[in-house]
Structure formats: C-alpha cells, structure tokens
Design goal:
With 210 residues, this protein is of the alpha/beta class. Helix content is 41%, strand content 22%. It has helices spanning 2-14, 47-65, 79-89, 130-141, 158-167, 177-186, 192-203, and strands spanning 18-20, 26-27, 33-34, 36-38, 70-74, 93-96, 109-110, 118-126, 145-154, 171-176.
C-alpha cells in the first residue's frame, strides 16, 4: 500500500490534480483556508491513471471487505470511479446524492437497493468526513449494510477518523496527505519553507490562515 500511496500522490502532482499554494490559499466550502486543493476528477482524463486507481480500488476492496453485493458512489466526484470499480467486479452500482432531488421521484439514492444488501462506498476525497458519512447514513436508512468505505485520497484529519470510528465505518484510502508532502518535497514541487506551512495547516486546519 505504501507503493500505491506514493504512486498515486505522484500522479496527482504530475497532472496538477493537487495544487499546493501556501502563499495564496484556497477557501473551502466550510470556510476553512487551505494551502492545498485536491480535485481527483482530473484523473478521469488520463486513462493510465484512472485504470491504475480502479485496479487498486478493486484489490483494496477484496482485501479488506471481500465481495459486497453492490458498490455505492458518493455524488458527484465518486460516481465515475465507482462505476469503473463496479464494472470490473461485475456488481450493481448506485450513487448517493448530497440531498434528495426536489422534483420527480425525489430520490436520495439513485439506483436499486434492497434491504439487507451489503455495500462498499467509494469516495474520491475524505476531508472532514461529513459528506461521506451522510452517504453512509442514507444507505443504512435504506436497509443497506455498509461494510466500509474506500477513497482515492485522505487529508487524515483526526476529527474525521474519530467520526468514522464512532459511526462504525472502516475506511481505507489509496493515498494520503503525509505521502503527498513527502513526494512533493523530494520531487521539488515545493520548497522547504512551504513544506513547513503545509505541515502546520494539517495540525489545525480550521484556524490556519486566520
């Protein structure tokens, strides 16, 4: 898994799916200031990279969870990788919206689920874990047994880990923030002074930059 984490971190940096800007931070939807922005949807434009991620997801799911009854993606960024994984594994696929549609059937879960089915949830990115756990809760409310979650990348915030633990959701990620910084530093994507800022941000992201 260490080799996988390093390879994916290098891919994300190469295609600029991850942008590191300590001097010109981004503002997340939560209002947090962040020196890093990760857009894993960029990987879909690169067949070699998306295939590698798909294959590593399949291996990780089979290793940690065995074979579920279905694959569920978190809308919208995890829909495409979720479909790719489900296709290879020969499993049904559904996706979970952030909120129910306000028209038509007003679905929260798109696709067919049945009470008692088991699922592994695909996520592209885990930050605070709130939206990821909202999807888990929606599936559980529909009677689905969530075996766990896998993601392409995680920031590794302690509060997210605690939220998943309390919810009883095992979660595994293909790559992570620590590995990303190691690769970025060695490959000279960032300077040593920038690395220090990026490390400090992870320690207290809600207060960083205020």
């Amino acid at each position: 898994m260490e080799d996988t984490a390093s390879k994916i971190a290098e891919f994300l940096l190469q295609i600029k799916a991850v942008k590191l800007q300590p001097e010109n931070p981004f503002t997340w939807a939560s209002g947090w200031k962040s020196p890093v922005y990760c857009d894993n949807r960029m990987t879909l434009s690169y067949p070699v990279i998306r295939t590698f991620i798909r294959q590593e997801f399949v291996k990780l799911i089979e290793l940690r969870f065995g074979r579920p009854d279905l694959i569920a993606g978190v809308a919208t960024a995890a829909i495409a990788p979720g479909v790719l994984v489900a296709e290879v594994m020969g499993l049904p696929f559904v996706y979970v919206r952030s909120s129910a549609k306000d028209h038509g059937l007003k679905n929260l879960i798109e696709g067919e689920v049945q009470e008692g089915q088991s699922a592994v949830v695909i996520e592209d990115l885990i930050s605070t874990g709130k939206s990821s756990l909202n999807a888990v809760n929606a599936l559980r409310a529909a009677g689905v047994v969530v075996k766990g979650m896998v993601s392409i990348f995680t920031y590794g915030f302690p509060q997210a880990a605690e939220s998943f633990r309390k919810a009883g959701v095992p979660v595994y990620s293909l790559s992570n923030y620590e590995t990303l910084l190691q690769i970025a530093s060695v490959a000279k994507y960032i300077r040593s002074d920038q690395l220090e800022q990026l490390v400090q941000w992870r320690e207290n992201p809600s207060e960083w930059g205020k």
